[in-house]
Design a protein that fits this description.
The complex is a heterodimer of chains A (about 250) and B (about 300).
Chain A: E1 2-11, E2 14-24, E3 29-33, H1 40-47, E4 55-60, E5 63-64, H2 70-76, E6 78-81, H3 93-100, H4 107-120, H5 122-126, H6 137-149, E7 155-159, H7 167-182, E8 186-191, H8 194-200, E9 203-208, E10 211-216, H9 223-232, H10 236-245
Parallel strand pairs in A: 3-8, 3-9, 6-7, 7-8
Antiparallel strand pairs in A: 1-2, 1-4, 4-5, 9-10
Chain B: H1 2-32, H2 39-57, H3 61-84, H4 92-113, E1 119-120, E2 130-132, E3 135-137, H5 139-161, H6 163-173, H7 175-180, H8 185-211, E4 213-214, H9 218-233, H10 238-259, H11 264-278
Antiparallel strand pairs in B: 1-4, 2-3
Classes of the chains: A alpha/beta (about 250), B mainly alpha (about 300).
Chain lengths: ~250, ~300
């Protein structure tokens, strides 16, 4: 479905992605784990077209996405739920969902999709007139997911949907992820919460210092080891050196 | 009492043009979170387009108005391409300083093209003032007020009732998130600049038609009035811009009536100072939690 190969993205001279290849299979949940600063968000932003890669390719069902504007990438069927949600705080819940359908022109279909979102997220329906900035963190996360779904993506990218949420809300968010997937959405998920992520993921990738260091299915590697590497990385001393050198 | 009301009426009339200038300013500031000091001078360029048409070709009022608006838009896009589009995020100061440089450039260019200090500008309205009981209003003032209110309402509708407005508000809230939902951020910003310049062009045309003369200093005048009215009203707020303009106009006319024309601007700055100290967010604005620094 989504094929990333040999992707290099740099901030100035510092390469945040040093040749990353990831295969996201259609209809599955693929999870990207790794410690802070591994380059996970950079990968998501590069796929979404916000950052331009120095090299490499990103193909959606065979079509190259590198070089397309973020707007084009959305209309091709890749939507990102960004880290920290980034809902539009001064717009109502309803307007946020409308904004999610910005690339679409089919007014009637958009309206029925909004109803579908309200059916899936009843709390958004209750608060449809409220400004998004006044929602709780969990509600904002649901809104961010709903907003991304409004573009009718074939691949949904999610960057740390559990960030800063209470455990009970995190469980709810992961239920939603699993449910979306059961309804046929391909999901590529970045998570810090490795324990939760491994429960829903069909496949996972480990990323450390801008490289993929392991890929497999949950169970292939003991959960303890995955978690250890997801949080701390394997080359702890090297990484400490690199991070202080930045 | 009659004087008080009459002065307030006059203040509202004059203030409506300030409101219009502030409206253009606020659109640019809202979208970019950057100050465009060249805003007034771009309108002055438009005004010179209009004056040249009027003087050399005997153009009619509508043609002059169109020329002012088109000239402002062209100059506005020139400033956007030069001072705003190429500047990276976090380089807001670079935009401001370069827009100051372009201000000087435009002013000098205007002086080169029309070296006499003052040039005539066609009048609108004319005829006797309209009487309303003991009060009266000039027709050109009424046209100015009506146009200002209509334009402000149109901008409000555009922002809150159209797809383009939704996209622009998304850009204002968060350019990255706007990009992620598929808004073409760069194009939205350029269109917003063009729109703001067009609003400024209308404001400039109305003010100059009331004054019936144009000088190269008009650019500075427009930047200052728009800036003060915008700050009083609250950064980035459309109703704030209009009300800030009206308030500024009322204060100016009253102070001029009481103490003479030489203190008029003094009072304007005093009001600005009071707001900056007592209510820095203005009438409708609020100081963003993250401040302006990390987006400037």
């Amino acid at each position: 479905m989504l094929d990333v190969s040999d992707l290099v993205t740099a901030y100035g001279k510092i390469e945040a992605l040093k040749g990353v290849s990831v295969h996201v299979e259609g209809g599955k949940i693929t999870c990207l784990l790794g410690p802070n600063g591994a380059g996970k968000t950079t990968l998501m932003m590069t796929i979404a077209g916000i950052l331009g890669p120095r090299r490499g390719s990103i193909k959606l069902a065979g079509t190259e996405l590198v070089g397309l504007s973020p707007a084009r990438i959305v209309s091709r069927g890749v939507a990102l739920v960004p880290e920290n949600r980034l809902v539009f705080p001064d717009m109502s819940v309803h307007e946020n969902l409308l904004a999610g359908a910005y690339q679409r022109n089919d007014k009637r279909e958009i309206a029925s999709d909004i109803e579908r979102m309200y059916a899936r997220f009843p709390r958004l329906k209750e608060r449809h007139d409220q400004l998004a900035g006044t929602l709780s963190g969990g509600e904002q996360q649901m809104l961010a997911v709903g907003r991304a779904l409004m573009s009718r993506p074939s691949v949904l990218l999610m960057d740390e949907p559990s960030l800063g949420l209470a455990p009970i809300i995190v469980a709810e968010i992961f239920d939603i992820v699993a449910e979306l997937n059961r309804d046929g959405t391909t999901i590529f998920l970045v998570e810090q919460n490795a324990h939760m992520a491994l429960k829903v993921a069909h496949q996972f990738f480990l990323m450390e210092q801008g490289r993929i260091t392991f890929q497999g299915t949950p169970g292939e590697l003991a959960e303890d080891e995955v978690i250890q590497r997801a949080y701390l990385g394997t080359r702890r001393t090297d990484q400490a050196g690199e991070e202080s050198g930045r | 009492m009659i004087d008080l009301v009459q002065n307030t009426i006059d203040g509202i009339m004059i203030g409506s043009s300030y409101g219009l200038l502030a409206l253009g300013f606020t659109v640019i500031f809202g979208v970019m979170r950057r100050l465009n000091l060249s805003y007034g001078p771009t309108i002055m360029v438009g005004a010179y387009f209009g004056t040249v048409l009027y003087l050399d070709y005997g153009a009619g009022l509508l043609a002059v108005a169109a020329a002012v608006v088109v000239g402002s838009v062209i100059a506005g896009i020139y400033v956007e391409r030069l001072c705003f589009a190429p500047m990276k995020a976090g380089a807001g100061i670079a935009s401001m300083v370069s827009s100051f440089a372009i201000w000087m450039q435009l002013e000098q260019a205007a002086i080169l093209v029309l070296p006499r200090h003052t040039y005539p500008f066609p009048a609108i309205g004319g005829g006797a003032p309209i009487e309303l009981g003991p009060f009266f209003a000039r027709t050109d003032h009424l046209i100015m007020l009506a146009s200002s209110l209509a334009l402000a309402a149109a901008v409000q509708l555009l922002l809150y009732r159209t797809r383009y407005g939704l996209g622009l508000r998304a850009v204002i809230a968060n350019p990255v998130a706007a990009n992620l939902v598929g808004v073409n951020v760069k194009r939205s910003i350029m269109l917003a600049f063009a729109g703001a310049s067009a609003i400024g062009g209308v404001a400039g045309f109305l003010v100059l038609a009331v004054d019936q003369q144009v000088t190269p200093m008009f650019g500075m005048w427009a930047t200052l009035k728009g800036l003060i009215a915008m700050i009083i009203g609250g950064l980035g707020s459309i109703p704030g811009a209009v009300l800030g303009g009206l308030l500024l106009g009322i204060v100016e006319i009253h102070s001029q009536w009481q103490f003479g024309p030489q203190v008029r601007d003094l009072f304007a700055y005093f009001v600005l100072f009071t707001f900056l100290v007592a209510r820095p967010g203005g009438l409708f604005g609020r100081v963003p939690e993250d401040g302006l620094s990390n987006r400037a």
